[in-house]
Specification:
two-stranded antiparallel ribbon; alpha+beta; single chain; 260 residues
Length: 260
């Protein structure tokens, strides 16, 4: 059974809605890859990209210190830190990705602007990705405004970060470094040996939503993967399926790397 057949088998009895996009070298696997899903925190990857692009244009200085004047609930650590706190914009980008800090995310949205983020995503061909509200803005969500994306769009984001020309080499390196220090490994990375593979990922969760997107690299072999879900009856079971798919991808790129 090849890697695509193994992944298809994992999805047969999936309890909920799921979309998958995977690229391993010149091979692609898709399952509802163009469908739109709640992005949860994987929307923070496009926000990171816009921050880096605006820093290249001189609109923001990633080394500038910013006083923390707001605290947003949900995930993150800033809300638990000293009230007399200043962090650089790079620190905010790092916290947004590595611990999915919502305070950092909302501050960055204010700095670069929601409209520029969406405009850039459209220009990059990410036609299903929309940032329509800040983190923890439940009033906006009740009005039907949510952050959305598709597995295909998230794989495009990862490829742009890793090998595209949208960002400079220095910005791509910074993005990969930040994504590499991601602290949540309970989905795509849960069953793989992270000492043998370079990983760069971003997870996202909401009630009955479990998402993850990742770059996996062994030697010269690279895999891009995005798995988005919603309407889950059992989020724990969904995370287990995502973890097994991550293991199948890891096994395949390890096999390809060893064969070269």
């Amino acid at each position: 059974m090849n890697w695509k057949e193994k992944i298809s088998k994992e999805l047969v009895d999936f309890k909920g809605r799921v979309g998958v996009a995977i690229e391993i070298e010149n091979e692609r696997y898709e399952f509802h890859s163009e469908e739109v899903f709640p992005s949860a925190s994987v929307i923070k990857v496009p926000i990171l990209m816009e921050c880096l692009k605006q820093s290249e244009h001189g609109n923001i200085d990633v080394d500038e210190f910013i006083k923390i004047t707001e605290r947003t609930g949900g995930s993150g650590v800033i809300q638990a830190l000293s009230t007399n706190l200043s962090l650089t914009i790079k620190d905010l980008m790092t916290l947004m990705i590595t611990v999915s800090d919502n305070t950092a995310t909302n501050m960055l949205i204010d700095f670069v602007g929601m409209d520029p983020i969406n405009r850039t995503m459209e220009e990059l061909g990410l036609h299903t990705t929309r940032l329509q509200r800040k983190m923890m803005d439940f009033a906006a969500k009740e009005k039907g405004l949510d952050n959305v994306t598709s597995p295909s769009d998230m794989v495009k984001c990862l490829k742009i970060i890793h090998e595209g020309d949208f960002l400079s080499a220095n910005s791509r390196r910074m993005a990969l470094d930040i994504l590499h220090f991601q602290q949540f490994h309970d989905k795509l990375l849960a069953m793989i040996d992270t000492d043998r593979v370079f990983t760069a990922n971003k997870t996202g969760s909401l009630p009955n939503v479990e998402n993850d997107c990742a770059i996996l690299k062994v030697g010269s072999k690279t895999a891009y993967v995005a798995i988005l879900t919603d309407k889950l009856s059992d989020p724990y079971e969904a995370r287990q399926v995502i973890s097994r798919i991550g293991k199948h991808i890891y096994d395949e790129i390890t096999r390809k790397a060893e064969a070269t």
